[in-house]
């Protein structure tokens, strides 16, 4: 008989009320037993009010679901998630974002992934929510690839609460992205596994304009550069930047022979923003927290940067020892 875990769903929102309302509605209608999951909202929006809290709590009561609603001054997504974790009663903590809509069986399928004690985290599939523009179709999120690189994309992720406590929760220094990568690396460093649950589906509302996508990917680049400094592998990260630049030059050189030129041009622009963010992070940003020194982390970080796999491919191709 499968164990039925108690669950806390944490969703953080900041000035996206319409998006949040649709997300909240999907969380109220989960197939998981109503008396065994709670919803924790951390709101940092400008329009926060007691009347809003009252309305949301009344809606949750009609669904017989416990709602905990907190306001926190804007400190970044990692800090908001930490406030949620601090107030969670669930053994399993599920995370999503305010620009997401959860499938009815989302929680149920995530929880099923914790089928042994070595599973520290489970991530589900992330599908685009009604994509219309080229930008929305381009901005996909690949959870399987993320797990191979030792982290979970946190808009569709669940962790054991005790594991999050062991690793010290999310690092609030990461305000530009890479908080997902960081928590995944630390969970893996404790010997836990991350698992993919393809039937646990979240529909994500991707960026709709090129400008927004450029900003997002630039910030991702900055965040990952700071991540490399936390673990003391800036020199390895520079190699990663070089491989990205080589890939970018290749994309530009092969543009004339590509059939889908619009997507290729979009890829060149977005990758350029990402690389510029990484260079800016390496040159001008510092990690101001406690640095980690761990052989396991070092190996996981190398794998994340895809350096080892690139070397393995070259070695196999040229039959090098």
Order of helices and strands: EHEHEHEEHEHHEHHEHHHHH
Q: Can you list the strand order of the major beta sheet?
A: 3-2-1-4-7-6-8-5
CATH superfamily of the largest domain: Spore Coat Polysaccharide Biosynthesis Protein SpsA, Chain A
What name is given to the CATH topology of the largest domain? Spore Coat Polysaccharide Biosynthesis Protein SpsA, Chain A
Using the alpha-carbon principal axes, give the shape. Answer: globular
CATH class of the largest domain: Alpha Beta
CATH architecture of the largest domain: Alpha-Beta Complex
Number of strands: 8
Helix content: 40-55%
What do you see in this structure?
This protein is α/β, with parallel strands linked by helices and 321 residues long. The protein folds into two domains: 7-204, Spore Coat Polysaccharide Biosynthesis Protein SpsA, Chain A (Alpha-Beta Complex), CATH 3.90.550.10; 210-318, no CATH class. It has 13 helices and eight strands. The protein has an eight-stranded mixed sheet with strand order 3-2-1-4-7-6-8-5, sandwiched between helices. α1 (17-28) links the parallel β1 (7-13) and β2 (37-43). The longest helix has 24 residues, at 261-284. The mean pLDDT is 87.
Which structural traits does this protein have?
8-stranded mixed beta sheet, 2 domains, Spore Coat Polysaccharide Biosynthesis Protein SpsA, Chain A, alpha/beta, globular
